[in-house]
Amino acid sequence: MSANDEEPRLSAKQAELAARMASYLVAARFPPGQRVTEEQLCKEFRVSRSPVRAVMQFLSTRGFLTQAERGYFAPDRMPELGSASALIPKSADQQLLDAISRDRSRDLVPEQFTEAEFMRRYDVPRSQLLRVLNRLSLDGVVEPAPGHGWYFLPTLNSPETYRDSYRFRILIEPQSMLEPTFLADKPLLRQMREDQMSMASSSDARQLFELNASFHETLAGFSHNSFIIEAVRRHSRLRRLNEQLALDRARIRKRIGEHVAIIDALLEDQREWAASLLKHHLEIASQITPAFAAPID
């Protein structure tokens, strides 16, 4: 029997959760054999046990988890970064979310809108649109407007918001390394270094994006400060929703080299130097306005 025959059927919401959970499991880099519990994932994704249980069973058929009598565990070999999109087809909800995010990043939809307007524009039922709008609300992209309709929160769709985002990250991320609670996991740093070096010649733009996001989220995680961690994760979510991925090999090699230098400084317990390198790394990136944030002629 094939994996597709054995795997459970997922609802639209469960399929969406499966994609998010798979990306989380890859980025978390759990040691092989470490137990992953329903309670842990319910807390991470703020959902009940029922959908988490169904999704964990599904992900075990795709190699993201190993199922045993005592529960679920990290596999001996986790699928690579970026594999979630290939192993888990996009749900109709995810396709709608991508379309709304893409249109907003190109200023094709107004800042404030009604459900009826978006139902007509995207030819979808209200129930589906509401699911997607609620997801975007959790990601900090939209909010219900007072009285009627919805509106988009500041997002990465202009040179100004893009620069503001980086200025915020420059204030937060390097400083997190100097926090008294900061504690780097050196075995994890060594694995991160290997991951960075192995992706230097990759031609998969999505994998490179996820590698970059995972690098910054992992460093923030070492701070053990929940506010810092959530701020960095939120910026990763905004970038996933808005960035149009492109391959610039010279820039990729430079970015990976900068990541490796930061990792090496942390391996040598040179936190202040690592923070300085990270600040410089973010300052360089802030000067490059990507296509998604460029003014439309």
Q: Could you tell me the mean pLDDT?
A: 83
What string gives the helices and strands in order?
HHEHHEEHHEHHEEHHHHHH
Estimate what percentage of residues fall within beta strands: 5-15%
Shape descriptor reads: globular
Task: Report the end-to-end length measured between terminal Cα atoms.
Answer: 54 Å
CATH superfamily of the largest domain: GntR ligand-binding domain-like
| Residue windows where pLDDT falls under 50 for at least 5 positions | 1-5, 293-297
Count of helical regions: 14
Query: Which structural class do you get from the secondary structure elements?
Result: mainly alpha
Strand order of the largest sheet: 1-3-2
Please provide a written account of the structure:
The protein has 297 residues and is mostly helical. The protein folds into 3 domains: 3-87, Arc Repressor Mutant, subunit A (Orthogonal Bundle), CATH 1.10.10.10; 92-152, Orthogonal Bundle (Arc Repressor Mutant, subunit A); 159-293, GntR ligand-binding domain-like (Four Helix Bundle (Hemerythrin (Met), subunit A)). The protein is 61% helix and 5% strand. The protein is built from 14 helices and 6 strands. The protein has helices at residues 3-6, 12-28, 38-45, 49-61, 83-87, 92-105, 115-122, 126-138, 159-176, 186-198, 205-221, 226-242, 249-267, 271-286, and strands at residues 35-36, 66-68, 71-73, 112-113, 142-144, 150-152. Strand 2 (66-68) and strand 3 form a beta hairpin. The radius of gyration is 20 Å and the shape is globular. The N and C termini lie far apart (54 Å). The model is unreliable at 1-5 and 293-297 (pLDDT under 50).
